[in-house]
From TrEMBL:
Gene3D superfamilies: 3.60.21.10
Gene Ontology CC entries for this record: cytoplasm
Family: Belongs to the metallophosphoesterase superfamily. YfcE family.
Residues in Calcineurin-like phosphoesterase domain copies: 1-183
Name this polypeptide is given: Calcineurin-like phosphoesterase domain-containing protein
GO molecular-function terms, A-Z: phosphatase activity
Amino acid sequence: MRLLCVSDIHGHADALAAVLATAERRGYTQLLVAGDLCFPGPKPLETWRRLTQAKAVCVQGVSDRALATLDIDKVRPRSEHERARLDRLAETRTELGELILARLARLAPTYRLPLEDGGELVLVHGSPADPMEPISHDMTDEEVLSLLGDDPADVVICGGSHVPFDRLVGGVRIINVGSVGEAPCSIRSEAADRVRIAGRAPGELSRSGALSTSYGAGHADATFIELRAGELQVEQLVVPLGRAA
């Protein structure tokens, strides 16, 4: 079983297409998506269609819940930015239509997958204790433990913070897969300016648990996960994007 794990597409269908094209050349058996699928990017319907065609397993993120349930008439925007976001929310709802909105409303907050070694993987947007509260790379072990809850599974696949990392806390492997559509901009070294960063064990990561080289603009994040010879192999990808993405 070789899993392609992504999160936070936010309606950027071209970025998703670039990730899927890269992954298809490498091969994978299942696509897992840790929420925030269609809003606020420019192509929410195309994003949904691509995920459907790929038979993706998706869990509900913050923006998915907002699209499906938020009563816009009861929200009083406090700034022009908030007004623009509400207008975009209404436009996205119209583009998606009632059927897809109903499906977004029914997405589960978590998805559990048994692993071949007898362990278990949980897919969640934020954290096992609170699917809407993300685990970020700069949290202390104590902060992370408080978000793992009583039954976190052996491997937690999550998004929400838009920054990928691979970290072991309290015996739980936490893999944040970053963002397809809204990966943060930062300075990166020439050595890291490659499409792929090979999988690394948690001990090879920086003290915070994030990959020690930061990522730059114009890219999407994705992660391959595979159980090989009883060992979990994790490979976090940086996929360059063209202007269209």
